[in-house]
Amino acid sequence: MDYIPDITFTLQTSLSEKGLGFLGVGGDIDGEFNPTLVVPKGAVVQITLVNGDGMEHDITVPDFDAHSDHVVEKGATTTIVFKADKVGEFAYFCSIPGHRQAGMEGKIVVVEEGAEASAGAEDATGEDIVRDPTDLPPPVGDREPQVVRVDLETKEIVGQLADGTTYTYWTFNGKVPGPMIRVRVGDTVELHLKNDPNSKMTHSIDLHAVTGPGGGAVYTQTPPGEENVFTFKALNPGLYVYHCATPMVAHHIANGMYGLILVEPEGGLPPVDREFYVMQGEIYTQGKTGEKGFQEFSVEKLLAEEPEYLVFNGAAGGLTTEAHAMHANVGETVRIFFGVGGPNMTSSFHVIGEIFDRVYNQASLTSPALTDVQTTLVPPGGATMVEFKLQVPGRYILVDHALSRLEKGLVGFLFADGPDAPEIFKEGPAE
Question: pTM of this prediction?
Answer without folding.
Answer: 0.74
